[in-house]
Amino acid sequence: MAILSDQERRHFLEVVEARHNSRSTVVASQLEVKHWYDVVGEATVADAVLDRLVSGAHRIELKGKETMRKKKRRADEG
Fold first, then answer.
1. 3-state secondary structure 2-71
2. Backbone dihedral region of 64: left (phi > 0), alpha (psi from -120 to 50 degrees) or beta?
3. In angstroms, rounded to a whole number, what is the distance separating the alpha carbons of residues 10 and 48?
4. CA distances from 54 to 6, 10, 27, 34 (A)
5. I need a labelling partner for 6 at 20 to 30 A (CA). Which of 17, 28, 43, 47 fits?
6. Model pLDDT, residue 64
7. CA-to-CA dists, residue 66 to 33, 44, 53, 69, 71, angstroms
8. Cα 59 to Cα 50: distance, rounded to the nearest angstrom
9. CA angle, corner 19, sides to 48 and 15, nearest 5?
C-alpha cells in the first residue's frame, strides 16, 4: 500500500473529523491498525485520525486460515 500524499492525508482527516461524534463511520481494511502510521505517513495526522476512529469504536478483527487466492495460486503452481 502506498503512503498517502499530503492532500490525501488532509482529506482523510477532514472526513474523519467531520463525522466524529456525529455520524457512524465504517472502515474496512486488510491493513492492521499498527501499520496505519506507515501508510498515513505523518504521525501527528495518524494519531488524530486513529484517535477519532477508535474512540467509542466497535472493532472487529477477523483471523482466518489461508485465503482462497493463495490456495488457488498454490494449486496453479503445483
1. CCCCHHHHHHHHHHHHHHCCCCCCCCCCCCCHHHHHHHHCCHHHHHHHHHHHHCCCCCCCCCCCCCHHHH
2. beta
3. 11
4. 22, 18, 11, 12
5. 28
6. 76
7. 20, 35, 29, 8, 7
8. 12
9. 65
> Would you state the cell numbers that stand for residue 59, as one nine-digit string?
472493532
Q: Which of 25, 4, 7 is nearest to 16 (CA)?
A: 25
Phi and psi for 26 in degrees, rounded to 5?
-110, 130
From the list 6, 5, 3, 10, the residue with the least C-alpha distance to 49 is: 10
For the entire predicted model, the pTM comes to 0.68
CA distance 2 to 22: 30
